[in-house]
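ok so for the tutorial part 2 we go from a plain amino acid sequence to predicted structure tokens. step 1 is just haveing the sequence, like this:
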Amino acid sequence: MASNNIKSDVIILGAGINGCGIARELAISGKTVTVIDKSTIGSGTSSKSSRLIHGGLRYLETLQFKLVHEALKDRQELLRLYPNLVKMKSFYIPIYKPSPRPAWMIWFGLKFYDLLSGKNKQHHSRVIPRKEFSIHAASFKQVGLKAVFQYYDAKTNDLQLTQRVAQDAIANGANFYKNTHFSSITNNNDLFTVRTSQGDFIAPILINATGPWIDEVNTKFELPTKFSIRKISGIHIILDGLLTQDLMFMQTKQKRIFFVIPEPTNNQTIIGTTEREETVSIDNVTLCEEDIEYLIKNINNYLKPGFQILRQNVKDAYIGVRPLVAEAENPTNLSREYELDIHKFGDATLLHVFGGKLTTYLSLARKVKKKLSL
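step 2 — the prediction. this is what the tokens look like for a chain of 374 residues:
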């Protein structure tokens, strides 16, 4: 049990990838940092992703060039920082007829993606002969296959990456309090006091990095904010064995996308993700059988008869909730980008982190540091 009145320069609520990334960045700068989480490090959305460190090829279609460029820049740095955890992988995009997007559009997007990725030609996209694809992806149909493209992005283990970032923060002096519930948040125009099951934590700066829980935290503790979130859940199913050796970027007939992600080390294949808006509290979000069937149906559209997935082939599934940013004035205006929302109370500062992706936590953490003038 910690003693009362534990003082630090900064208190961070939430030990997901953004909270851990901010803690690491500020601790490296010499700040004393306290991170509080009601569960364990990375146990929320940060460990329920597609396990990709990527620019977001699909975001080019919605003209989110800034987000893609930032993510690709962070991807390069993560490959250098954590070479054992973040590795470049080959992705295939098979184009079947009728495709919801023409082949030329996807090829143009891939070339633009190459341009944003930088000069490393080793990882530039290329056209794959259909015969070569039939060898690499023997389980996939050849009938109706118009073209196959190959590009590169990075893969990780999201939970291990989040925990490693937390370890780096701890090595630089940050303190983490796991399984710690906070009962009140108050400020006196000088300091914030967060009362918890482990004692009272005091700091002039409070950072709310609670991810999909952020609206619930703001409402419960009456914290001012300019933004809110829409809670979009996504599930992944896990199959025994490998469907392919390479990762796949697939399309549904409705123009949505999903990934096929082989994990040879575990001899399993992950398929996901879905998008469902949630209205219940985050702790009450549950898997829907309908979403599992959706993924099975869409992958089976591309598999040969002998490789069709049955419900009993799904050995596990997991669900995560993405906090997509909505403006308070216009809650239907959603963004995949993140927002840093700052509020001053005399000498006390509150900063909310809305949104964010696994890939871009480095840039986000640096922007937090800059916004706080630390």
